[in-house]
Design the sequence.
């Protein structure tokens, strides 16, 4: 971190470093993707016991309200330790949304199982023909007594084949009602009428899924905020997703893996390689500094800024540049599908570059983020509109 640490922050860093060294199982270090669901949930439970699963949540709901500097230190130390990627849909997406918009019953029912590592959530936004364009949603729901009856499909659903619950957008009125036609609803994935099909990614993992709904009945009490009020919830969740998703953890993890590669192969003795590594380290530090500045702005104003789109773009693109350098410098190791031993750890140099390709697509593509910056920050005219 570029900023000078206070004594308290340095003590927090040392606590994090020691705790991770003592509590992170070696089999979970430096994985190219996520561990299996049970091992991931077990790791979530250990993090929660320490108070680091939801460091940004209010204490009243089980969080620890760490400062932005402490959160960044935690990202840096987790990257150093090679912690596994975990499912963030409950922690970063639906959790904060329920704290803000959910009913008391919804909070009591759904927040504790997230903290206790008992449930996996997935996000039902993308559909065939409606990826980042939420106005194009076709999955419909009609009111039948005290239930919604849902028909349609979702796609590119991260861990949809493992999830216990989904938060989804469904169309409950005619498209001409535009934003008032969409409802945000919580769906029990064990409900009759749901079919799941895993989708294999370029990295060879079943990380995504396609979900089909055939007359799936969902209690109306599972609607968040109200029928036809989903647009406000959806956009706030996207703001939260961009904010949390723009954190530098992926770039920092990639940077540590690149450092290990350089040490493992000895390529860092080449001055040209050292210059390239130094340039990438500066870029990663710039991402961290920008993210910290954004977090402190949000911490003061409690409003997610459109600047999160900027951080999302530079964070994902820097990560991809680091992993591309890793592939170029790894030589034959870049073609090895499994980890190679280094310094008592197993380090993978091929899986992470493949995983990094998805970062500029998920959570709203980088092209969408550039459009948001153009319209909301620069206030440029939309395409086809003359000034």
Sequence:
């Amino acid at each position: 971190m570029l900023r000078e640490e206070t004594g308290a922050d340095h003590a927090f860093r040392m606590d994090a470093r020691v705790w991770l060294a003592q509590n992170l199982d070696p089999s979970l270090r430096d994985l190219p993707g996520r561990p299996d669901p049970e091992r991931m949930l077990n790791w979530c439970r250990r993090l929660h016991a320490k108070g680091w699963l939801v460091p940004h949540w209010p204490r009243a709901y089980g969080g620890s309200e760490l400062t932005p500097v402490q959160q960044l230190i935690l990202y840096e130390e987790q990257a150093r330790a090679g912690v596994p990627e975990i499912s963030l849909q409950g922690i970063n997406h639906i959790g904060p949304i329920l704290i803000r918009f959910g009913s008391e019953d919804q909070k009591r029912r759904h927040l504790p199982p997230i903290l206790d590592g008992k449930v996996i959530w997935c996000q039902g936004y993308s559909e065939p023909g409606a990826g980042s364009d939420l106005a194009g949603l076709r999955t419909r729901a009609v009111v039948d007594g005290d239930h919604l009856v849902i028909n349609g499909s979702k796609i590119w659903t991260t861990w949809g084949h493992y999830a216990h619950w989904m938060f989804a957008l469904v169309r409950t009125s005619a498209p001409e009602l535009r934003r008032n036609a969409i409802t945000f609803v919580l769906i029990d994935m064990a409900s009759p009428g749901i079919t799941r099909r895993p989708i294999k990614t370029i990295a060879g993992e079943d990380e995504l899924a396609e979900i089909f709904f055939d007359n799936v009945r969902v209690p109306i009490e599972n609607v968040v905020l109200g029928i036809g009020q989903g647009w406000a919830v959806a956009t706030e969740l996207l703001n939260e997703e961009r904010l949390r998703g723009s954190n530098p953890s992926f770039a920092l993890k990639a940077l540590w893996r690149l450092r290990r590669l350089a040490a493992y192969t000895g390529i860092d003795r080449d001055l040209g390689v050292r210059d390239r590594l130094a340039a990438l380290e500066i870029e990663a530090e710039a991402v961290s500094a920008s993210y910290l500045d954004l977090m402190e702005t949000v911490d003061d104003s409690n409003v997610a800024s459109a600047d999160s789109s900027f951080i999302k773009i530079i964070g994902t693109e820097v990560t991809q540049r680091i992993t591309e350098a890793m592939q170029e410098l790894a030589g034959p190791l870049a073609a090895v599908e499994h980890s190679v031993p280094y310094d008592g750890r197993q380090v993978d140099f091929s899986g992470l570059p493949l995983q990094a390709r998805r970062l500029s697509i998920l959570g709203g593509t980088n092209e969408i983020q550039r459009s948001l910056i153009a319209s909301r920050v620069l206030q440029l005219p939309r395409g086809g509109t003359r000034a």
